[in-house]
Design brief:
The chain has about 375 residues and is mostly helical. The protein has a single domain, classed as HUPs (Rossmann fold, 3-Layer(aba) Sandwich). It has helices spanning about 30-40, 45-60, 80-90, 105-120, 130-145, 150-170, 180, 185-190, 195-205, 215-225, 240-255, 265-280, 285-295, 300-305, 315-330, 330-340, 355-360, 360-370, 375-385; strands spanning about 70-75, 95-100, 125-130, 170-175, 230. A 5-stranded parallel sheet has the order 3-2-1-4-5, with helices on both faces. α3 (about 80-90) links the parallel β1 and β2. The longest helix has 18 residues, at about 45-60.
């Protein structure tokens, strides 16, 4: 997505091509204001440290006499790797590390996970998805023409973490998300849910789903309300910076960097850096770099220079695509057909979103019971849809 010849937010890099954006008289966008609202809701410093330590005490209390007191989903990336270090070494928690193997993990990510769990003496459970099923789902999303084609992996991760937590009697899942370095992506770019997944698979799939761990609205209610399992985001409260975290991981664990946000997974890397960028002209870095500018992690001028570089390596992209098509059983001709087909929106297919949007006011009290933190989708509705 080009930012030149665009109206750009005076605070970050958000521009007038971003869905749902608007600007005030000082050229400050509603996305920048959303970021500030999130920072107010989840302050760092003394207040954030106190809030996180309260969670630590609850986690330890709930985990008494159990083998594990929390679960951490690990990918081999910066956030989840540092979260393992933080939980075990700095706060004395007893996490079970869970990795979702969808057949696309990079060699570096696998090595990082083994290094971290081995050094920290943390048990690792690897949940392997039936590859024929995940392959069929990823193909279905490519055929659908949607922007974010890695939804099956996102939903499976959520489902597996809750499923294992319930099995082990664990009440807390620690997540490595950090809005201050990642930002809040427009729903038009990345939205997807379990209802839509089932619809797209019926429409485009060819393999029966027997074991795929989908994440539906009923799962959310069952695990969050009935089982009382909560997802906690430590980096919302702690003074976390990716660059410093990577320095710690490299020096202590011989951890290796993999080249970009979510590049620890081969398909996710392709979905972000090529499919979104070339087919939809969406550059997710605009959102993440804007957040990092407001967080003080990077200067705006440096962020603009970074956006001038393509998000994928032109020297190896053809090789990467060939590898992906081979694993998905797609010919170049088939891929080109879908790549150049009409772009679709998540609104073009059935999903939970109309229900969530219509009943957002009614659902807020219920969500407060199920979820300890207000979902990003609600922050986005408030800042975008109620102007």
């Amino acid at each position: 997505m080009e930012i030149e010849n665009s109206r750009i937010c005076s605070m970050g890099l958000w521009n007038d091509k971003i869905p749902g954006i608007n600007f005030d008289q000082d050229n400050v966008s509603n996305y920048a204001k959303m970021f500030d609202k999130l920072c107010d809701a989840y302050p760092r410093g003394v207040t954030g440290q106190k809030k996180w330590e309260e969670y630590v005490n609850r986690i330890k209390e709930k985990g008494k006499n159990k083998k594990y007191d929390c679960i951490i989903g690990v990918s081999g990336g910066t956030d989840s790797s540092y979260l393992l270090h933080l939980a075990k070494k700095e706060y004395g928690l007893r996490p079970l590390a869970v990795n979702l193997d969808n057949g696309w993990n990079s060699d570096i990510s696998v090595k990082n996970i083994k290094k971290m769990t081995s050094e920290l003496k943390i048990d690792l459970e690897t949940y392997v998805i039936d590859y024929e099923e995940i392959k069929d789902l990823l193909r279905s999303y490519i055929f659908s023409g949607l922007p974010w084609i890695d939804i099956p992996t996102d939903l499976a991760i959520k489902s597996v973490l809750y499923k294992i937590a319930a099995r082990e009697g664990i009440s807390y899942i620690l997540r490595g998300n950090d809005f201050r370095s990642e930002g809040t992506q427009p729903r038009e770019w990345t939205y997807g849910d379990g209802r839509q997944l089932n619809y797209l698979h019926r429409k485009f799939g060819r393999v029966k789903l027997k074991t795929f761990p989908n994440y539906t609205l009923s799962n959310l209610i069952y695990y969050g309300y009935i089982k009382g399992i909560k997802s906690i985001y430590p980096f919302y409260f702690l003074d976390y910076q990716k660059n410093k975290a990577q320095d710690v991981l490299k020096s202590i664990y011989d951890w290796e960097y993999y080249g970009g946000h979510h590049h620890e997974n081969v398909f996710t890397k392709f979905a972000i850096s090529y499919w979104l960028f070339e087919k939809f002209h969406i550059d997710k870095r605009i959102i993440s770099l804007s957040a990092q500018v407001l967080s003080g992690e990077i200067k705006k001028s440096s962020a603009i220079e970074e956006l001038k570089i393509e998000p994928y390596d032109p020297k190896i992209i053809d090789k990467d695509i060939d590898y992906i098509l081979k694993k998905l059983d797609l010919t170049k001709a088939e891929f080109n057909l879908y790549f150049h087909a009409q772009n679709r929106s998540f609104n073009d297919y059935p999903s939970y979103y109309p229900f969530i949007s219509k009943f957002s006011k009614i659902s807020k009290p219920l969500l407060k019971i199920i979820l300890p933190n207000k979902p990003m989708a609600l922050f986005q509705m408030e800042m975008r849809d109620k102007q």
